[in-house]
């Protein structure tokens, strides 16, 4: 068998590999194009006139010249544009006055414009509440800007009076939407009334605490029972005679105990029959004190519509008494452990502000 030279064998091998590679490329490779086969169409120019100018920066971002003046890209000084001041940052009225209308109701005027409610209605104060009108005027007279009128904690009397006016307008139209909402709120708070939530009794095996003089201090449960029984006794004899009000927390359970059905029906009917301003004040008192019973006692004690139930010659149930009844547990804990600055002290003053607005709104000059 003839033997091929080594050089010829290497040349033949290279040709064979090249032929096989070309055959595989023709069968498995495809053309790949990055440019569309369709040529682009040049549309006609429809714009007329010179090209637009280059954008220039806003006046507040203009460049400063060597003299310290704002200049544009062309080097010309730019006109100073003053930033418009918000009308809410200043007080747009000078004087606050109280005007009595021919029908006897009062209006509070900012110069010559009456104060309006969030529903754009003129705020009207009943003829039997002149002190309320002057108190609302004082709220607006101490303001330094219109923005303060948007904060409810600065206008407690204005907002509460507007709420009572809205209820009165609904009553005139024969609607009960707001009344039904407040009644539902009141009955829901009755199921978890703060006044009726007492701490469990002391463990009989726990040691007795004593002061320096050997006397045992009043426990939290005893203080809660003392305050609650006084309010319950007043409501059970003056407001809802014969109604049985029971504590809502059992010693062996964390779930509240519901009041008797007869008690709920009587309280619900009484709340739904209140006058508009008394109902609005009751709502705020409930939300502030977390207690329906405390709010009812406060409203009955000061409302002009319950003169026949108020005790003459005796100390009234006022702001301090209502605040103590609704925050007895918090005060007991802060006396033991101390207050948290900007928390307990702020809540304490805010509670008294809201309870005070309840007293001012329900009071009046109506006699028996």
UniProtKB/TrEMBL annotation:
Listed Polar residues bias regions: 77-87
Chief subcellular location: mitochondrion
Gene Ontology cellular-component annotations: mitochondrion
Record GO biological process: mitochondrial proton-transporting ATP synthase complex assembly
Cell compartments where the protein resides: Mitochondrion
Transmembrane segment boundaries: none
Region (Disordered): 45-88
Coiled-coil blocks: none
InterPro entries with a match to the protein in the record: ATP12_ATP_synth-F1-assembly, ATP12_ATP_synth-F1-assembly_N, ATP12_ortho_dom_sf
Bias (Pro residues): 49-58
Feature: compositional bias, Basic and acidic residues: 63-73
Keyword hit for Transit peptide: yes
Keyword Transit peptide in annotation: yes
Swiss-Prot/TrEMBL keywords: Chaperone, Mitochondrion, Transit peptide
PANTHER family: ATP SYNTHASE MITOCHONDRIAL F1 COMPLEX ASSEMBLY FACTOR 2, ATP SYNTHASE MITOCHONDRIAL F1 COMPLEX ASSEMBLY FACTOR 2/ATP12 PROTEIN, MITOCHONDRIAL PRECURSOR
Family: Belongs to the ATP12 family.
Protein name as catalogued: Protein atp12, mitochondrial
Originating organism: Aspergillus lentulus
């Amino acid at each position: 068998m003839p033997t091929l030279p080594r050089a010829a064998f290497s040349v033949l091998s290279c040709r064979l590999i090249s032929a096989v590679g070309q055959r595989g490329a023709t069968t498995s490779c495809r053309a790949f194009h990055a440019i569309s086969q369709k040529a682009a169409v040049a549309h006609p120019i429809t714009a007329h006139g010179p090209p637009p100018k280059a954008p220039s920066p806003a006046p507040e971002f203009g460049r400063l010249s060597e003299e310290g003046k704002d200049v544009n890209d062309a080097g010309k000084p730019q006109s100073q544009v003053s930033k418009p001041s918000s009308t809410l940052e200043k007080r747009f009225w000078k004087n606050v006055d109280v005007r009595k209308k021919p029908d006897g109701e009062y209006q509070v005027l900012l110069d010559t414009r009456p104060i309006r409610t969030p529903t754009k209605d003129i705020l009207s104060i009943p003829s039997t509440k002149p002190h309320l009108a002057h108190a609302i005027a004082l709220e607006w007279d101490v303001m330094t800007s219109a923005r303060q009128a948007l904060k409810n904690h600065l206008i407690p009397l204005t907002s509460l009076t507007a709420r009572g006016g809205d209820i009165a307008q609904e009553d005139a139209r024969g609607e009960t939407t707001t009344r039904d909402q407040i009644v539902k709120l009141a009955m829901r708070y009755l199921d978890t009334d703060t006044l009726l939530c007492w701490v469990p009794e002391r463990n009989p095996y726990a040691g007795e605490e004593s002061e320096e003089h050997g006397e045992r201090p009043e426990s939290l449960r005893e203080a809660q029972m003392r305050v609650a029984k006084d309010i319950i006794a007043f409501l059970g004899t003056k407001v809802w005679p014969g109604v049985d009000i029971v504590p809502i927390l059992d010693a062996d359970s964390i779930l509240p105990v519901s009041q008797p059905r007869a008690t709920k029906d009587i309280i619900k009917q009484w709340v739904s029959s209140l006058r508009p301003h008394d109902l609005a004040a009751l709502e705020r008192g409930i939300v502030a004190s977390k207690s329906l019973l405390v709010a009812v006692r406060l409203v009955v004690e000061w409302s002009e519509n319950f003169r026949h139930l108020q005790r003459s010659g005796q100390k009234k149930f006022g702001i301090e008494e209502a605040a103590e009844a609704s925050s007895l547990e918090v005060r007991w804990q802060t006396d033991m452990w101390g207050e948290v600055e900007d928390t307990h002290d702020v809540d304490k003053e805010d509670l008294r502000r809201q309870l005070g607005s309840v007293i001012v709104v329900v009071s009046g000059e109506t006699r028996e």
